[in-house]
């Protein structure tokens, strides 16, 4: 019997022979693994039977890595202990497979990362460009006109202006600013006494001609023939559609009285539409004129608890911009004026708004700035601080704006209700 113990010469030779044999069979198996990577090795590692999915998995670098460790074990340990060998293979493969997997994912994601980087760069460039345009817009509308000579409104548009809702707030202040620039005025409002007072005081103070028409715009269709008749003999150069009503305080639509909803339709939308209908044909004939529709910053996005009001202002804004496209070539300038809060009777329900002049300027400060944008911008808040506020508000996503507006209007409503109760 041959001595095959490791210490004996034959044993050593036998062992060497055995080792050579194992090395041969190892290199033989290595070749086989390279040729048939998915068959025998998989069976030895007790992989589940090959399904089409499994085939795909087997071909992956992770499985190949397991096989590589199996070879490493066989070559170096020189014997098969299936349980330990498999465990070793799995542990080593698991360690390496993380890295391999990461490399694979990183490799396949490389193009996605580049695409995302491009999208990010495009977004930043777009925002940057917008910021530059907005800053230039602020300079162009509010600051440059102060440096150069002002537009001569009489020469540009005509001698007479009509202002609706001219007995208080923005309308009255706008009328005064026009008079300060030498424009004669026809004031339209519902209260004769107030109209007389405002009309006389403007005529006296600014040495311009004034007249007034007493109508209630909430009456609807019946009033317009009267206005048309009264304006028949006058060349209207500027029409300021200022008259407007809002809810008494922010409120859910279902709780707003029906009468108020009709007022919003008749006063905010119908009045401006019909006034344009009356003055536009003569402006077209003369190939000059300006129409200012006082909308609101609430036209830009839906405002909860101001649904009817903000929608009526969106109507005015769209109406103005479309009109400008239609008649700019005929020498008619149409402006959509979209103020934020202005301290007038309309926001009297809130002490917060009246106490923050940077948020809500007085009507006269507002009107001075707004008139200086006439002929320069077709759509503006009319006041630089309002434009900055709007810029910030419009930079947030709409859902966030609406959420914030709802909270803000809740605060204002509660304040108004507690003021009414006390
Ligand atoms: N104040 C703001 O924070 C703000 C913000 C954005 C937009 N706006 C818009 O700016 C415009 C002017 O607002 P305001 O704050 O100056 O309002 P206001 O102070 O309440 O003045 C409204 C003017 O319209 C007249 N008026 C109201 N209802 C009338 C009717 N049925 N018929 C005839 N005249 C009527 C009023 O006459 P009486 O004097 O007889 O009441 C008053 O002269 C509105 O279109 C409003 O939507 C205001």
From TrEMBL:
What residue spans carry the region label Disordered? 1-35
- A Gene Ontology MF term for this entry? estradiol 17-beta-dehydrogenase [NAD(P)+] activity
The record's subcellular locations are: Endoplasmic reticulum membrane; Mitochondrion
Its pathway is:
Steroid biosynthesis; estrogen biosynthesis
Task: Check the record and name the SUPFAM superfamilies matching this protein.
Answer: NAD(P)-binding Rossmann-fold domains (SSF51735)
Q: Which Pfam families match?
A: adh_short
Instruction: Look up the record and report any one GO term of the cellular component aspect.
Output: endoplasmic reticulum membrane
Name this protein carries in UniProt: 3-ketoacyl-CoA reductase
Organism of origin is Pleurodeles waltl (Iberian ribbed newt)
């Amino acid at each position: 019997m041959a001595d095959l113990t490791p210490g004996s010469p034959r044993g050593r030779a036998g062992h060497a022979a055995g080792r050579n044999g194992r090395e041969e069979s190892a290199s033989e198996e290595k070749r086989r693994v390279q040729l048939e990577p998915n068959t025998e090795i998989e069976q030895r590692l007790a992989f589940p039977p090959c399904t089409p999915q499994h085939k795909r998995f087997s071909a992956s670098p992770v499985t190949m890595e397991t096989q590589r460790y199996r070879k490493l074990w066989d070559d170096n340990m020189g014997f098969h202990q299936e349980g330990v060998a498999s465990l070793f293979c799995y542990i080593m493969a698991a360690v390496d497979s993380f890295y391999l997997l990461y490399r694979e994912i990183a490799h396949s994601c490389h193009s996605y990362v580049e695409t995302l980087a491009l999208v990010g760069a495009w977004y930043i460039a777009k925002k940057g460009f917008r910021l530059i345009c907005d800053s230039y817009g602020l300079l162009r509308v509010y600051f440059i006109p102060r440096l150069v000579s002002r537009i001569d409104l009489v020469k540009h548009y005509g001698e007479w202006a009509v202002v609706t809702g001219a007995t208080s707030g923005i309308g009255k202040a706008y009328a005064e600013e026009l008079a300060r620039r030498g424009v004669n005025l026809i004031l339209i409002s519902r209260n004769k006494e107030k109209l007389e007072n405002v009309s006389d005081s403007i005529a006296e103070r600014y040495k311009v001609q004034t007249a007034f028409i007493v109508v209630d715009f909430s009456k609807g269709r019946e009033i317009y023939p009267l206005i048309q008749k009264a304006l028949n003999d006058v060349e209207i150069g500027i029409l300021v559609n200022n008259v407007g009503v809002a809810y008494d305080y922010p409120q859910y639509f279902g709780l707003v009285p029906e009468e108020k909803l009709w007022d919003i339709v008749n006063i905010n939308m119908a009045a401006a539409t019909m006034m344009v209908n009356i003055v536009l044909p003569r402006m077209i004939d003369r190939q000059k004129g300006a129409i200012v529709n006082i909308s609101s910053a609430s036209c830009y996005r839906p405002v909860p608890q101001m649904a009817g009001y903000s929608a009526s202002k969106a109507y005015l804004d769209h109406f103005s911009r479309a009109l400008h496209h239609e008649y700019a070539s005929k020498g008619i300038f149409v402006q959509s004026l979209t103020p934020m809060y202005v301290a007038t009777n309309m926001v009297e329900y809130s002490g917060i708004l009246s106490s923050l002049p940077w948020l809500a300027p007085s009507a006269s400060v507002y009107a001075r700035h707004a008139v200086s944008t006439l002929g320069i911008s077709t759509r503006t808040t009319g006041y630089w601080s309002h434009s900055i506020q709007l810029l910030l508000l419009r930079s947030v996503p709409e859902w966030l704006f609406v959420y914030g507006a709802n909270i803000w209007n809740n605060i204002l409503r509660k304040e108004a209700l507690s003021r009414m109760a006390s």
